[in-house]
């Protein structure tokens, strides 16, 4: 079975083609700067002899229609598919599924209209997903297509965890509540953790830490998400590359009154100019570590703040779960930054959490167990693979519907 995974944004489309017989990536690539004077289109694939090829082209790609045409031609020319009907399915990543989608959905007019209706709750992502989806349906009408929602894994949160303590009418009228994001990644790593620990996922209690440029934590009880740090939008929770995470909401009133900042200014400030970048000028953890090692105090402060916030969430989700079988680190920072792992779990022996400093420094492209042998809670590093999870869920949905 060949499944194509599409992640369409407002000005970019990322794609990966999987052979589901062995989960191998047959081809991958992206088209960026869609709609600009000069766009960049890329494909990477392996030929029958397993030799890797890459092709890049700079040209004007005005819209998603042309972007997907470029991708299809590139896939056909590379020989990984004969034509679009050679695809068994297309899986679309969708960030905001609101309360409407608790699991994957076969794409049809109704599903697309719901994704459109949810744009106010996902203004940065849903319009791009929808543009890509409409074009893919138009260009490949015979290929079954599935929408996979970042929010769906968190649809099991109990109401007392997803409600905000603001007037109830805003939940009734506007569906303001915690939705949570990165669900595909949290789901993937908890399944991988269960396999590694040889435990049924439906009995596994885990705290999963997705630490990339965006970052979130999930508390998982018996394989189901029961709390997560992102909220109505991906702004809440941990300190991120450019997002503030949790702050006192009254800061916004104070800034508006003192500095005359508008709603748009505040939105931009919290989403694009805050987080690690707001503290030390960089949103790239590798660069920040380097700066800190060279004595930059703000870079060190940014790291300390990042680790401290993370530790607070590990503590609070330990309390939420009571029994924690494992903590899983993933994402660019979680998979690579041993210092973040060590500091965020420091002095948590009373919670049953103890990292072995030597194991923590080991590197692996596979799963790494970094907890000390006497640690009650297993601490794992698991590379995430959201695209593969989307492909697997797409395949499951298609098999269910045929
Ligand atoms: P992601 O959004 O998952 O791609 O993660 C991006 C973040 O991971 C950035 O802050 C990167 O600096 C960080 N990152 C990637 N590789 C490393 C590494 N080897 N060490 C520390 N941080 C890394």
TrEMBL record:
Protein name, UniProt field: Acetate kinase
Q: Which GO terms describe its biological process?
A: acetate metabolic process; acetyl-CoA biosynthetic process
Its GO CC terms?
A: cytoplasm
Q: What class of enzyme is it?
A: transferase
Identify the coding gene: ackA
Q: Which organism is this protein's natural source? A: Sulfurospirillum halorespirans DSM 13726
Name a GO molecular-function annotation.
Answer: ATP binding
Q: In which pathway does it act?
A: Metabolic intermediate biosynthesis; acetyl-CoA biosynthesis; acetyl-CoA from acetate: step 1/2
Residues engaged in binding substrate? 93
Origin organism lineage:
Bacteria, Pseudomonadati, Campylobacterota, Epsilonproteobacteria, Campylobacterales
């Amino acid at each position: 079975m060949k499944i194509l995974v599409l992640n369409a944004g407002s000005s970019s489309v990322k794609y990966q083609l999987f052979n589901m017989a062995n989960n191998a990536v047959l081809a991958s690539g992206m088209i960026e700067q869609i709609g600009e004077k000069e766009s960049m289109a890329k494909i990477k694939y392996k030929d029958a002899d397993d030799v890797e090829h890459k092709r890049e082209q700079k040209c004007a790609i005005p819209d998603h229609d042309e972007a997907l045409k470029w991708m299809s031609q590139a896939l056909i020319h590379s020989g990984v598919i004969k034509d679009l009907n050679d695809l068994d399915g297309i899986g679309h990543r969708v960030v905001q599924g609101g309360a409407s989608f608790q699991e994957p959905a076969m794409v049809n007019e109704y599903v697309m209209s719901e994704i459109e209706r949810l744009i106010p709750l996902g203004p940065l992502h849903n319009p791009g997903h929808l543009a890509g989806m409409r074009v893919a349906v138009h260009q490949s009408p015979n290929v079954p297509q599935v929408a996979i929602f970042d929010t769906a894994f968190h649809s099991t949160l109990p109401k007392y965890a997803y409600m905000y303590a603001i007037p109830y009418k805003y939940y009734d009228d506007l569906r303001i509540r915690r939705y949570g994001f990165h669900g595909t990644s949290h789901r993937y790593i908890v399944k991988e953790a269960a396999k590694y620990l040889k435990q049924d996922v439906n009995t596994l209690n885990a705290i999963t830490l997705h630490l990339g440029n965006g970052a979130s934590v999930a508390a998982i009880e018996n394989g189901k998400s029961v709390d997560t740090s992102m909220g109505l939008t991906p702004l809440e929770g941990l300190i991120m590359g450019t997002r503030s995470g949790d702050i006192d909401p009254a800061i916004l009133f104070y800034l508006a009154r003192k500095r005359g900042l508008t709603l748009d200014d505040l939105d931009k400030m919290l989403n694009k100019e805050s987080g690690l970048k707001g503290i030390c000028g960089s949103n790239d953890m590798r660069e920040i570590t380097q700066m800190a090692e060279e004595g930059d105090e703000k870079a060190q402060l940014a790291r300390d703040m990042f680790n401290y916030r993370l530790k607070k969430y590990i503590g609070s989700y330990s309390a939420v779960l009571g029994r924690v079988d494992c903590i899983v680190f993933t994402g660019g920072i979680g998979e690579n930054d041993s210092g973040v792992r060590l500091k965020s779990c420091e002095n948590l022996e009373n919670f049953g959490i103890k990292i072995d400093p030597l194991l923590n420094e080991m590197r692996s492209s596979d799963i790494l167990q970094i907890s000390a042998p006497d640690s009650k809670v297993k601490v794992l590093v698991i590379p995430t693979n959201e695209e593969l999870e989307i492909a697997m869920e797409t395949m499951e949905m298609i098999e269910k519907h045929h």
